[in-house]
Amino acid sequence: MDVLSEIERDIRAFADPGSGIMVDSNSAIWEKDGRAYTATFSSGGSNRFPDVGLEERKMSYQSFLASPWMADLASLAEFISKRDSKSGVYLETTARIESEDGVLLPNRPAADAIIERATGGLPFLSTRVLLVRGEAGSGKTAALKEVTRRLARKYRDGRSHCLLFYIDAQGRALSRLEDAMAKDLQDLRSKFTYAAIGPLTRHNLIVPIIDGFDELLGSGGYDEAFSSLAAFLATLDGQGCVVASARSAFFDYRNFYENAKRYAGGSTLNYTVDTLDILPWSESQVREYFSSSELPPVHEPSDLQATLDSLLSSSNQQNRELLSKPFYAAHVRRLLSSGHHMTRDEDLLDQLVEAFIEREHKKLLNKDGHPILTEHGHLSFLTNLAEEMWWQEKRTLDVSTVQTVAELVTESMGLPLAAAKSIVERVSAYAFLTSEGVSQSGLRFEHEVFYGYFLALRLIDIIQRDQSELRRFLSRSVIDSTIIDQSVKRLGGDVDVCSGAVDSLIGSIRPSLGDFLARENAGSIIAALMRTAGTLREGITLRYCLFKQVSMCGVELRYTRFTNCELDGVDMRSTSLKHVAFEKTTIRGVRVRLGDTRLEGIGRDFLESIYDAHVEGNLPDTPMGHLYSPEDLSLAFSRMGATIGENEPTLYHYSERSQKMIETLDRFIRRMERNFYISEEDLQSLPYAQKAEWQDVWALLRKHALLEDQIGPKSGRRMPLIRLSVPPVVLRNGESRRDPSLPQNVVDFWREMLEMT
Hints:
- The chain is an alpha/beta fold.
- The protein folds into five domains: 3-66; 73-279, Rossmann fold (3-Layer(aba) Sandwich); 280-346; 450-588, no CATH class; 656-754, Arc Repressor Mutant, subunit A, CATH 1.10.10.
- The chain contains 29 helices and 30 strands.
- The strands form eight sheets. A seven-stranded mixed β-sheet has the order 7-6-12-8-11-10-9, with helices on both faces. Strands 1-2-3-4-5 form a five-stranded antiparallel β-sheet. Strands 13-15-14 form a three-stranded antiparallel β-sheet.
- Helix 8 links the parallel strand 10 (206-211) and strand 11.
- Helix 19 packs across helix 21 (495-508), helix 19 (467-476) crosses helix 22 and helix 20 crosses helix 22.
- The longest helix is centred in the middle third of the chain and has 18 residues, at 375-392.
């Protein structure tokens, strides 16, 4: 697309619907808000776009788009500053950043790191997708709102050229991202519509922040959400930056390539993925928060400090972990400040929920001053609300739906209709619920943690009583770690109870491809049950489960059978498998550790099921790292106790040249896992670009048609862009050459590379 076409496209996003636009090399004419405008163009711009003259003022093209005649970003910055002026005290969290080559950079204050990565040093001809990851309650939303506020104030004061546009995506379908943008723009009284987000993002004037990306995963699973984001990226032509927040357990950027590829079409869908992880607070940060003078005063600070000391010294590791997350720390301080007593060894989240329910029980009274609902009734009301949200695949319910839920709960308890009416009248001030960030007629849980807590209660009930209902539940949406952890915790660590829950889960799933979401949800829950109980009943058979990116650390399985299962990226460090059988099961990317992972009575069926593994440890004459070749895998697993056969295999030695090529290829694949395309300039700047082994790899990639070229637009000449013709994971898996689904050119590539001497 040439410059004039881009200018016309940009202006059209601001012009009145149906009005004509005329653009030539000297000027542009359009209508906006019923008024005709004429702008003149002149050379001398700082980039390939011309300077613009409008109403006796000359400005850069970016300033023109931001001006009062177009987006009026100064007005938007003012409204953002006012809206967020009462956002409360923000205490800094810490962020960990991973470079494109997988190298961890020094930790930084989270807000500074987000601003730096979102607005500075953007990659050449590539949209930066900044993934802000962290566990539930770790402070992702607080950090993103803080950076939005900071940038708005800097823009208002003339110290920034860019604004962050915060989109609260909680409770919305990502396929309707335009609707979410439109509503938030209306709330801010913006002078432009969602159609202008694309141009403003392309020119680095706005950075959209999609907060709660992971909560938008519905029955379509990961693919639908990723593809929706890819559809938006396709409008950016490899420019600007987009920020998306997600819990760590949800977002694996390596899956993004295949979904993004579907939306490439004729567009230049080029992106670079950066990950930024929000870290838990240290103990010193927790203490700083509790003693902050900026927070409301505490009536008896000595008692609060004593309770805090007790909680931090508790033998309950989970409580210490919860206190390291700002969300929990804030609620604990709130309760302690009001005089509520908290014990050090009881579960902190249970205490929070019990305290707030007790408060509602005492606060929600009838005209005679008696509680309308028992504490169990309040719990039932909240559990039913969470379940209704689950079935509707929403995180927000309108008041009429809330009223219906209240009527059903009170009716089941034999209470009069007036009781339900009282609940609905008071529900806007109800603990756990909020109307903030939603329409006036809607309510949602204050935090995803509470939603997960109450939904977990319903999931336990379904697991224990109704397999047909369980299958529907598992197929509805992605079950996040909060729901799983709370469910498993309430089932307890008894082996028979956990094994019985596993039986129910296995009985509810089917082998069909259409049941993949239920199979993956079941696998996640079963893995959590294994960890909690430490083992399962001997002789149990696990069928049709997808164990994807889960942990089996510390689990010991005896005489267990995996049938028609998939284990993908499972952490099996400190796992012990004794006489475990694998039938029609595939194992990929498992993480094991020599001297820690134990395999006893494990033989050929296991080794024939495994395609690749990450091997840690330090034993002489044993291959380490990411292994693919059957010879290396056999030798490594024999060191863990697997029985290979009568004769222990010998290590298959690659030539020195082949080994260097494999190491270089691995570095290139890691780069391409984060990029859809890579430019010729970026290729030349790779740290290994001048080495002989890279030239060999490059020649083989070209020879076997594993690279695709596309010409991207650039002022003065057309810029070559290169991408892999197969997903990075497929190219990685080619080393084993045993997967019948591997493309022939991948098999041929690896065979030729490994035969080099």
